[in-house]
């Protein structure tokens, strides 16, 4: 009897460990996975009028989901504006975020990151006929610059370029419309994002100057979810190894004219 009960307890203990592991690894048990992306960033992640999503971040997000066992029809997409990303993860409203999300030490206090899966850097977008903005130095002459609340580029301008009139909007597409309408002089964020807008409106805009930061895009997960983080890192590595990463890069950034880079090493 005692032996039987001990065995029973052991089996239960093992089952408890196994189910704890399953819970730790499986984003949720609803049979669906919820992924946060941008909806308005051509080349990276854009929601088209028919409701479908496309872009590099979307391809990465779909690849990761498939490796976690979720085919495309089991993904629920949620819009993740820059300023809401940490909150969406902390509240458990998304399982992970693939949303042009730079890995930074201050964000690491609140969330964890898999990756990085792409390297980029901050740059400037101006109207195609502009001649007086050639780089960050020209901004100090009281130029009106637009960026997005809760983003690293907006923070960097605030910290390092005090002479610039920074306007913070909720989305980069709103900044780009303001640029088109002459309400502002330039937009700043990562060059892959800016190049996507330039490619979408040929002849309207141009990128100027050099990259003036290094942004490493990571996949955001809830702080402490090491099991999910590890599985996402495995998926990114596999995407790079089997050629899907390269295909996604060419398909999404080809129009913007970027050469295919070597993917950055994963930071386990
Ligand atoms: N990569 C930068 C960031 O995470 C800018 C792009 C964005 O706002 O999504 O803040």
UniProtKB/TrEMBL annotation:
It comes from the Bacteria. Residues 1-24 form the signal peptide. InterPro entries: Bact_solute-bind_prot3, SBP_3_CS, Solute-binding_3/MltF_N. Keywords: Signal, Transport. Residues 32-256 form the Solute-binding protein family 3/N-terminal domain. GO terms for cellular component: extracellular region; outer membrane-bounded periplasmic space. One of its GO terms (biological process) is amino acid transport. Pfam families: SBP_bac_3. Coiled coil: none annotated. Belongs to the bacterial solute-binding protein 3 family. This is Glutamate-binding protein. The lineage of its organism: Bacteria, Bacillati, Actinomycetota, Actinomycetes, Mycobacteriales.
């Amino acid at each position: 009897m005692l032996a039987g009960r001990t065995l029973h307890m052991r089996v239960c203990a093992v089952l408890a460990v196994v189910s704890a592991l399953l819970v730790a690894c499986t984003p949720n048990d609803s049979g669906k996975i919820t992924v946060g992306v941008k909806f308005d960033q051509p080349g990276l992640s854009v929601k088209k009028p028919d409701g479908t999503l496309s872009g590099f971040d979307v391809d990465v997000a779909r690849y990761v989901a498939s490796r976690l066992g979720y085919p495309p029809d089991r993904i629920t997409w949620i819009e993740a504006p820059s300023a809401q990303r940490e909150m969406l993860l902390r509240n458990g409203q998304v399982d992970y975020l693939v949303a042009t999300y730079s890995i930074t030490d201050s964000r690491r206090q609140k969330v964890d990151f898999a990756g990085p899966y792409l390297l980029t850097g901050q740059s400037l977008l101006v109207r195609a006929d502009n001649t007086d903005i050639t780089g960050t130095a020209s901004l100090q002459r009281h130029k009106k610059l637009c960026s997005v609340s809760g983003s690293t580029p907006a923070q960097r301008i605030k910290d390092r370029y005090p002479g610039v009139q920074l306007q913070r909007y909720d989305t980069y597409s709103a900044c780009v419309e303001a640029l088109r309408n002459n309400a502002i002089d330039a937009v700043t964020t990562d060059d892959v994002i800016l190049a996507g807008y330039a490619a979408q409106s040929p002849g309207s805009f141009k990128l100027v100057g050099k990259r003036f930061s290094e942004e490493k895009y990571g996949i955001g997960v809830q702080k402490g979810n090491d099991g999910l983080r590890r599985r996402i890192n495995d998926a990114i590595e596999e995407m790079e190894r089997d050629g899907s990463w390269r295909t996604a890069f060419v398909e999404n950034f080809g129009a913007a004219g970027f050469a295919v880079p070597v993917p950055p090493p994963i930071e386990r």
